[in-house]
Structure formats: structure tokens, C-alpha cells
Write a structure and sequence with these properties.
The protein is α+β, with helices and mostly antiparallel strands. It has helices spanning 45-49, 85-92, 127-130, 267-280, 297-302, 346-352, 380-389, 422-428, 447-450, 470-482, and strands at residues 55-65, 104-117, 122-125, 135-139, 145-147, 149-154, 159-163, 187-192, 200-211, 221-224, 236-238, 244-251, 262-266, 286-287, 290-294, 311-316, 332-336, 339-340, 359-366, 369-376, 378-379, 409-412, 415-419, 437-442, 458-462, 465-466, 487-493, 499-505. The strands form 5 sheets. It has a 7-stranded antiparallel sheet. Strands 22, 23, 24, 25, 26, 27 and 28 form a 7-stranded antiparallel sheet that branches. A 6-stranded antiparallel beta barrel has the order 8-9-10-13-12-11. Keywords: Hydrolase, Periplasm, Protease, Repeat, Serine protease, Signal, Stress response.
Length: 507
């Protein structure tokens, strides 16, 4: 299989991307209004006619340096004497498409977009359609063209907003619908520019919702089989009321064409990003300032939870400009600002959609009890800029390393443990602000080895109770056994203080 991205999903940066194929079913009664028939729509002609003019082709161009400039595409590695050797020599050589050595050439690409505000001339498309473009041009269904200005783009959701002069062309806009109301099996219609052919209409159904294709931190795609191919990227996905419920963005494809599996960004995510890009030229996402892990079956059992709902807080991010001190490592966030958190993937998306500076209520499970805490959100982008400037996470903390007398060493769960004194800090190069009990050895094939616990890691707490000595660890594990627990939830700190949770069998 040939894929266009690291995740195995095609996105077209050079000729935009798209979504899947469909076969039409039995003919339904004559189509009169945009309604859904049990057998499927007999025709979407009226629906398409009123929206074709709102969907545009987005054409981009950029200067690419030719061979010898350091930016050229490298020549593919092929066997010596291959029948294709001459072809590749011609194409990639000094006289090929790259032109003379060091010369630049003009590269063009095509994608799709749609008008969302006719009065202001606002067009929505995918970020990867216009990425690195020197010039952007919008082509209309009647053949006319207008230069476009980039108002803003967002890599994380793959969205971009363009502006054209509304006085130079009569514009038709489409409206956003509520993608949350869309159900699996609902009919949808896609319009786009596949393979640069021009406005093309396809019909299919919603195949699935809430798909994660590992393309970004906020994946929540609508999957559809409405035929979408290269060049459809940035085009709209309509419901049968003619409302946009998604922005087509990616396909799974072994050949570069549609096989009936494609993805659209739902409007429940896209609208807030588009509004921010229009107003500010950038996104302004809420930021909780925590590191999270999934709640696995083992974690749920070790915390006495009946289900794996929620997101486990692995630690608070230092310097995160967030008032989040009421949240503690080991908390399981099950509700954020009234929204249920089903899994760890839900939390970043819900937080990002929240206003910066808003004080929200967060429901957590802490030591087997449900508690509500308040947090004032920071801004994610501010933290990311700070991280880019900082060469290290070291905050220069100089905390005392004095420890009370502790037992020298104990063996627990296949680990040899020792007090974290100055000698151990020096031996394992452990940061001064890390506190707990250090792991000095791990027995092969032990419960700890199964979870890849390594010497030099520090046990900070067990089952949400802090441990300060090897004896504390031993007593806590014995207590869990007496309670009938099968696993112990360990919070581990790395040498630099980065936290993670693991569950270790105590049986």
C-alpha cells in the first residue's frame, strides 16, 4: 500500500485530498425537496444545483529550487541497468523538469474550498491545500478566477481561511449545519475538484463517526463512502438539508484513488477554528496544563473504578500559565465543563474548544471518590511559544535533598528499592526536585520488568498515596493485596522528573 502521510492516510499537498466511493441503491420516489427516503435519494439534482456555485477550486503555485539548490526532490534509488534508468535520468537530471542546476521552477497544485460568507468573501479550505503556497487563486464554477489572501491557517485541524474580493464576483455562500446530529447511515453529498477535473458531485452515507486516524491531536473525523479523491480536499460534505457538516480532508488509498474510505473534519470542531482564524488570524485554544494517559482496565481496577472512562492525569506541566493547582497527578478526569470525558482522546479536544481564561469545573475521581475542582484555563499557543524558546525544562529549582533515616533496600514486585539520598541521586543522575523511592534493580521476567520499569526510575506514589521510603512501598503493596486488588498503580518519575503511570501485578 502506498500512503501519503506517516499515519497511512493520504492528504494531498500537491493536488489536494479526499474521501471514498459509493454505489447507488434502488430508485426512490421522485425527489422534490431535500429529504431522506428509506431507499436513498432518487436524485440530488436540486440540492447540488443550489450549491455548486458556492464550491470553488483552489489553485496554488510556489517556486521550488531546481537540482543543486539543496531543496530538490532526490532521485529515487533504482537498480543499475533498470529499464527505467533513462526515464529517471531525463526527469531528475539537469535538463529535466528541475531545469538548469540551481534554477527555480513553478509548481502548481489544485484543491477545493467553499464560500461561507458572500458579503465578506470568506472561503474555507484545508491547510495542506495552500501550505507553502506563494500565490493562491480561487476558480469559480463559471470559469472566472480571483486572487485570494490567506487570513489564517491551523495545522492541527488542517483548516485554512481565505479572503477574496466580493465586489469582483457574485458569490454564493453555504451554511454550516450541526454535525453532532448526523448519524451513521445518513446520506451525504460531497462537492469538490477531484484530479483537477472541476466541480464534481458524489453521494454516499456516513460510514462512521469519531474516527481517529492519528493525523493530529484532535482527530474526530466523520468517515464517509461518498466518492472523494485527490483534489477534493477542502471541499464540503453536505447533509440532505444542504448544510455543511464536514470539510473533506483525507482518504485511505492503496492507489491514490477512492476505495470508499474517506474522512471529513466535523463542523462541531471546524466552526470554532474557522471563527478564530477569521477574527484573529490564528487559533486561541484553551490549555489545561496537564499530561494525561488512557485509563486501561488495569488502571481502572487498581483505582477501584468500574469502567475505563476518563483521562488519567500523569502530571502537571510546569510553566503552563494555567491555574490548575487543584488537580493532582493520579486524578482521573471524567467530566470537563459539563462534558463527559469518555477517554483520554476526548480531553484535549474539549479543552481546546474552551475559551482562554475561562474558569471551568472539572470532575475527577480521586482515591475512589468523585470530586469537583475549579481550573482557570491558559492558552495553548502561549505555552508552545514558550517551549520553543526554552532550551530546557529545568526551572533552576534548588530543593533540599535531606531525607529522614530509611531502610537501606527492599525487594518488592521484582524491584530492588532504595532511599533516594544524595548517593543515589548522583549514581542515577536524578534531578534535585524528584522525590520518592528509587528503583536500583529490576529482576528479569518479573511483574515490574513486564511494565518496562528500569533502574533509576523513582516511585512517587502507589494507588494515589505518596511513598517516601522502601518500607512505605512494601506496606502499601501489602495493603493492596489484603484489599484483594490485582494490580498496583505506580506513579513513576524519570531521572528528569517526567511522570508516567504503570500498573503492576501484585498477585
Amino acid at each position: 500500500m502506498a500512503f501519503g502521510t506517516r499515519s497511512g492516510f493520504l492528504r494531498s499537498g500537491i493536488a489536494a485530498i479526499a474521501i471514498g466511493a459509493v454505489t447507488f441503491g434502488a430508485i426512490a420516489p421522485v425527489w422534490t425537496t431535500p429529504v431522506q427516503a428509506a431507499e436513498g435519494p432518487a436524485s440530488v439534482a436540486d440540492l447540488a444545483q443550489g450549491r455548486l456555485d458556492a464550491v470553488v477550486n483552489v489553485s496554488t503555485s510556489q517556486n521550488v529550487q531546481g537540482p543543486g539548490s539543496g531543496n530538490q526532490v532526490p532521485m529515487p534509488q533504482i537498480p543499475e541497468g533498470s529499464p527505467f534508468q533513462e526515464f529517471f535520468d531525463d526527469f531528475f537530471g539537469p535538463q529535466g523538469r528541475g531545469g538548469e542546476r540551481g534554477q527555480s521552477r513553478r509548481v502548481q497544485s489544485l484543491g477545493s474550498g467553499f464560500v461561507v460568507d458572500a458579503q465578506q468573501g470568506i472561503v474555507v479550505t484545508n491547510n495542506h491545500v495552500i501550505a507553502d503556497a506563494d500565490d493562491i487563486e480561487v476558480n469559480f464554477n463559471d470559469g472566472s478566477k480571483l486572487k485570494a489572501e490567506l487570513l489564517g491557517k491551523d495545522v492541527k485541524t488542517d483548516l485554512a481561511v481565505l479572503k477574496i474580493d466580493p465586489t469582483k464576483h457574485k458569490l454564493t455562500a453555504v451554511k454550516f449545519g450541526d454535525s453532532q446530529k448526523a448519524r451513521i447511515g445518513d446520506w451525504v453529498m460531497a462537492i469538490g475538484n477531484p484530479f483537477g477535473l472541476g466541480g464534481t458531485v458524489t453521494v454516499g452515507i456516513i460510514s462512521a463517526r469519531n474516527r481517529n486516524i492519528n493525523s493530529g491531536p484532535y482527530d474526530n473525523f466523520i468517515q464517509t463512502d461518498a466518492a472523494i479523491n485527490r483534489g477534493n480536499s477542502g471541499g464540503p460534505l453536505f447533509n440532505m438539508d444542504g448544510e455543511v457538516i464536514g470539510v473533506n480532508t483525507a482518504i485511505i488509498s492503496p492507489s491514490g484513488g477512492s476505495i470508499g474510505i474517506g474522512f471529513a473534519i466535523p463542523t462541531e470542531m471546524a466552526v470554532s477554528v474557522i471563527d478564530q482564524l477569521r477574527e484573529f488570524g490564528e487559533t486561541r485554544r484553551g490549555w489545561l496544563g496537564v499530561r494525561i494517559q488512557p485509563v486501561t482496565d488495569d488502571v481502572a481496577e487498581s483505582l477501584g473504578m468500574k469502567s475505563t472512562t476518563g483521562a488519567l492525569v500523569a502530571g502537571l506541566v510546569e510553566g503552563s500559565n494555567v491555574d490548575n493547582k487543584e488537580i493532582q497527578p493520579g486524578d482521573v478526569i471524567v467530566k470537563f465543563d459539563g462534558k463527559t470525558i469518555e477517554n483520554a482522546r476526548d480531553l484535549p479536544r474539549v479543552v481546546a474548544e474552551s475559551p482562554v481564561g475561562k474558569e471551568v469545573e472539572v470532575v475527577v475521581i480521586r482515591k475512589g471518590r468523585q470530586e469537583t475542582v475549579k481550573v482557570k484555563l491558559g492558552r495553548l499557543e502561549e505555552f508552545e511559544k514558550k517551549e520553543t524558546k526554552d532550551d530546557t525544562d529545568d526551572e533552576g529549582t534548588d530543593k533540599s535533598t535531606e531525607q529522614p533515616d530509611k531502610p537501606a533496600s527492599v525487594d518488592v514486585l521484582g524491584m530492588k528499592l532504595a532511599a533516594l539520598d544524595d548517593e543515589m541521586r548522583t549514581r542515577f543522575e536524578i534531578a534535585p526536585d524528584v522525590q520518592g523511592v528509587v528503583v536500583t534493580e529490576v529482576a528479569p521476567n518479573s511483574a515490574a520488568a513486564e511494565k518496562r520499569i528500569a533502574p533509576g526510575e523513582v516511585i512517587v506514589d502507589i494507588g494515589q498515596e505518596t511513598v517516601g521510603s522502601p518500607d512505605d512501598v512494601e506496606k502499601r503493596v501489602d495493603g493492596l493485596r489484603k484489599e484483594g486488588r490485582k494490580n498496583a498503580l505506580l506513579m513513576l518519575a524519570s531521572k528528569t522528573g517526567e511522570l508516567r503511570f504503570v500498573t503492576v501485578r501484585v498477585e
